[in-house]
Amino acid sequence: MSQPSSSPAQISIDSIYNGPVNCGNGGYISGLLASLLVDEGEGDAEIRINAAFPVETPLQVKDTDKGIGVYLDDTLLGSARRIQLELNIPTPPNVESARAASQRFEFIHASDPKGCYVCSPTRTSENGLLVFCGALDTLIEPEAGIDWRTQTEKNIVAALWRPAENLCNDKDTIDDIYVWSALDCPGAYAIKAAEPNAGLQLLGTCSGSIKTPLKPNEDYIVSSWKTSANSGRKRFMGVAIHNTAGELMACAEQIWIDVGNALPTSK
Prior knowledge:
The protein is an alpha+beta fold. It has one domain (about 10-255): Beta Barrel (Porin), CATH 2.40.160. Helix content is about 15%, strand content about 30%. The protein has five helices and eleven strands, in the order βαββββαβαβααββββ. An eleven-stranded antiparallel β-sheet has the order 1-3-4-5-2-8-11-10-9-7-6. Helix 1 (about 25-35) packs antiparallel against helix 4 (about 175-180). The radius of gyration is 17 Å and the shape is globular.
């Protein structure tokens, strides 16, 4: 597993890549940190987000004994290390089910006026990913007695996603950073669908794996499920991207933190 020959001593997140207001999107942060640790398409990584990453702000990147850390002055904002991700992935929904789920999308990440980079319906393909996850019909018409708050390994939400050509790298495939980004919000939408009264969710840990490069202007099925039962404020989610033939393209295992009504703030 190779490592990029040189990592920048400093990074800055453009304001286009926001999640909460004035803060970087968790998936974009994860993809950015992963890109500093492993070459495109060459390894899995675990990213931990300790605090909000402010946008348009120089942040320091430092080597650690396990990988890298990103700091604002003396505050550790997040870290990344190499791992080998092992994740049980449910059979993806079919194209028709994913398309129907997208039509049930209800926007929840709107603290910034332009909305979240990944899931805002007010953006265009020029400045957003347009990943619109909605509840699958299995959740709309559940079997009697099913409590989706406790169900694991069952897809809860899905979307049909078509990445745009402007997301490509120099190999004419979708840059890994944007794939990591697309893997972010579906987990939060699955939590909200299964637990309508849950509080605001912040991504705490994201372990990701890019299996096969995605191509622009092709449809992909995005889905999310619970990997294990809740533990206090923690929610444990899985997210996957499959092509329309059912081949796994990318996946992530996440830990979300329920913060009630408290939005993150950046310094």
